[in-house]
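Why does this matter for the project? Reviewers at the last site visit asked to see concrete outputs rather than summary tables. In response, this paragraph embeds two records directly. Each consists of the residue sequence and, immediately after it, the corresponding structure tokens. Nothing has been edited or filtered.
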Amino acid sequence: MDKSDLKFILAPRSVAVIGASAREDSVGRAVFANILFSGYKGIVYPVNPRVKSILGVRTYPSILDIPDEVDLAIVIVPNITVKKVIEECGQKAVKGAVVITAGFREVGEEGEKLEKELVEVARKYRLSIIGPNCVGLINTDPQVSLNATFARPFTPKPGQIAFVSQSGAFGVAALEYARKRDIRLSKFISVGNKADVNENTLLPALRDDEQTKVILLYLEDLVNPAEFMELAREIGEKKPILAIKSGRTLAGARAASSHTGALAGSDEIYNAFFTQAGVIRVDNLEELFDCGLAFATQPHPKSNRVAIITNAGGPGIVATDMIIKQGAQLAALEARTKERLARVLPPTASKENPVDLIGDAKEDRYELAIRIVFEDDGVDAAVIICTPTVFTNLEAIAKTIRDTVPRYGKPVTVCFMGTEDIERAAQVLEEGGIPHYLFPEIAAKVITRLTEYGWWVRRPLTGIKKFEDIDQKKVAAIIKKAKEAGRKFLPEPESYALLQAYGFPLAPFALVKTEEECAEKAPEIGFPLVLKVVSPQIVHKVDVGGVKLNIEDREHALKAYREMMASIKQKMPSAEIWGVLVQKMIKGGKETILGLKRDPLFGPVIMFGLGGVYVEAMRDVSFRIAPLRELTASRMVREIRGYRILEGFRGEERSDVEKIEECLKRLSQLALDFPEITELDINPLIALNQGQGALVVDARILLA
């Protein structure tokens, strides 16, 4: 079966439950009962050779004994029997199978062998498999009404949210959460070990599913990140994709040899990946569904300027803090808006944002404020908060919000604080497709997620710049020479030559091997200078006196050279000295770091941040996966906390940010052209003032 067409799995006309059981406390009984009693519109066949009927339905000894066509098989038999069952499914021309049975790759080598054999049989018959080691699937489409899981007997109401879970336990918990909050779903799919069908298989199917408007994912890993990114970027233009990726605290860099390697942990790379893919990454199950509800019902905001309307100051402040923390903006209300608010609100009410209607606000005051604020062109989205008081009629306020907000085409989230007397108000909001939450920080965070997605779908589309002023042959020769010599680390002169071949601007330098050469080259380069020893054995130059700073004239250069050689001879006499690097010492500018790490899953990862010796302590860096688009490089620079320093802080001149962006794009191209480079640090790249460019002062390159 074509993997892009999963309709026979997601919407089967007939289902065989192989391993259906009459025993009440069994998985086979639970799955069969859920299908039978969930209103499934197709035909269900229990397969069990040991009993004649289950729950009043005739059983069949084998799927081969079923006289009719079968679209989908649900397999719940011992793991060593699954291969034989799938073989029979193939002979029966079954379109797909959901293997609920555990005991495969997740339990070790023997299970992994069973799983590989299972996949081989499935591919032999072009039969698609979900699982093994999964919970099953649910399709709430009224034309299907299939609940083929062993979760508690509950089928969500038909909705617009599809949820795909790699973890069975997490999936069951999600269904319980959906039941508790009455969240409506279009699909629930537990993919388990992802032996065959995986997230990349399901995304196109959910893209084409008319019932699904929002796709939620729980992921523990990715099968093919490049394919996922391509799919997510395409699908995300029309259907938002939100994801939880577990494993945030796992160490991503073990014994890393560069700043980039130490900083680019697994979680940071996943963050970068999801950002580039247009996937909204959330932190937990509650946030996943909180956001899913809003994404399913609310329009996309044009920008990230958020207004807050509240009847209490404290909740408004809490919402404000969350909006700013998440990177959105508090909308600056127009003067006309504030004048209009002043005419209709009490004197003690706040006409600024947050708009505080004060505690005695009733539905009429809310309506006036909503109309005035939503008519402000500087407002893209809003959070509406209501704390119950003796003056408030929550149901009436809910009706006002429901009837007023949709006219303006701007997204809203609502917070009705408290737990009593809000049930009817909540029902009114739900009927109108208005997402509501118990706490202001949740409503605020959800609205920022909407603005994040709104930016994504409206972002300017940029290409990938291809630099022509490069010398690939020179770089290849440098790498070949190092490999032939058995060297993985390139010394600075070779690192500089490699970067220069790809158009990186370098601080002037020369490699000298004698005092006489030092005396000759120093004035040519220009003072002040720095001298650095070049030796394959000396990694920490400062420890052996291998660095001399602030060289002001020729005599000083000669003296520094002699002192350096004497110190190294004393502290590390066996070191092979290749020479001394005489380099222009750059005064002024801002130190930044550019880095490359080759990740085994994602490939080349590019890093940017403020540079210097404290880069690992500050961890103020951004990451992206190569290749970098024009807009990607720009966002990398601007999203670090220290960007204000580059913009010009407290009267300082702006740094040449555009030159930094160019260097990032050059590094991206270098990373793609030469996979032999596993790690690379440019630290620092000194960014000079606007229009003056930037200069590479130090570089470290590691080869595979």
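We now turn to the second protein, recorded in exactly the same manner.
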Amino acid sequence: MKSLLTTTRVAALALGLAVSSPLISHAQKNYKPTKENLAAREKFRDRGFGIFLHWGLYSIFGQGEWYMTNANLNRDEYSKVAGAFYPAQFDAAKWVAAIKASGAGYLTITSRHHEGFSMWDTKQSDYNIIKSTPFKRDILAELRDECRKQGLGFHIYYSLLDWHRDDYYPIGRTGQGTGRTKHGQWKTYDAFMNAQLAELVRDYNAEAIWFDGEWDQDINPGFQWNFDKMYAGIHKINPACLIGNNHHGEVHPGEDFQMFERDVPGANTAGLSGQAISKLPIETCQTMNGMWGYKIIDQTYKSDTTLIRLLVQTAGRNANLLLNIGPEATGALPATAIDRLEKIGKWMKTYGKTVKDGVREGIIPPQEWGVSTQKGKTVYLHILNWKSRMLSLPLTEKVKSVVAYDTRRPIPFQQTKLGLTLSFDKAPSEANAIDYIVEVTLH
């Protein structure tokens, strides 16, 4: 993920300024998604909610996933910590069960973050969890198998940049103090990446590849990532595998879903999501606390109310929410993260059908009071902030009935050519602290 350290590009985006990338990122030319790919996109949208897992050697330090570059740690010294990586508490079955119980439909796990360490038994490098740690268990394989067993989608994050290898060259704007040489052979790194991606798609059955780090080369004009070859290679192995890229820019040809970071689509409060909204399936990622990777002092967890409302706001903008957890080096999910999963899951058992499983953004666009979602002729009004007993809606389609989702009690309404007006016994914000849901059935 992108650090919140300020950069000139992020600052420009935060101000709403146009930013032209100097990269030449040729993507998959003449890409036409297959029938299988289009079906996978719909399944992705139906799942609606996923859990992101940032886990790697950086978890040992407990300083977040960017610690290697932020502290300018020498890559040779940093890599020695692999000898201490033994997450004895890791239990793929428990992780997947906790995630599924939250109402999430898939998980996304970091296979290799910017530190360059591979969390699976890759044949392309010995710098991996099997060859370099005493743990010697393939956590990606274990999570893949449990996802399949428990009915959860399995997505894989993959970093394009690498603070460890010399052949990630030219050096980008991050990782400049990690002790790499000042020269390298990009062709060998390009081949390394494509070989690893083939493993993840072919052998680990990734349903989606979540790319990150394209922005690292924006200081090197004319740099080419060769996405055309990369994307085509993935789709050749599995046409249904979805490709997304967290580049914070316009969608490249060959990508199957669009990403936003730390904001709902259309907002740009964090300065990372100024791009236009495409017609592709959309996903926005956010942290439970402040960091992506585990940071021992980061206890600023968002409340369950805030997280549930974020899920609702995201669904009301036709997007999935990918909510992040940074597992501890011990292999345990943080206790507070487990608590949030349980509380979200409790809410989802009652209200999940209003935000996932075929539900899309509603006929009423986001409003001051909240958002709407919809499935067929049923519209769900998610009233998050409304202190009046009357609510007027820009809805001209003929309404058959209006009820409170919780109690099924009819809500009086009046419809004219100008719209729909609802009358409540008391203001919605007083009735439910999280999300007051009104079910509107259209003729």
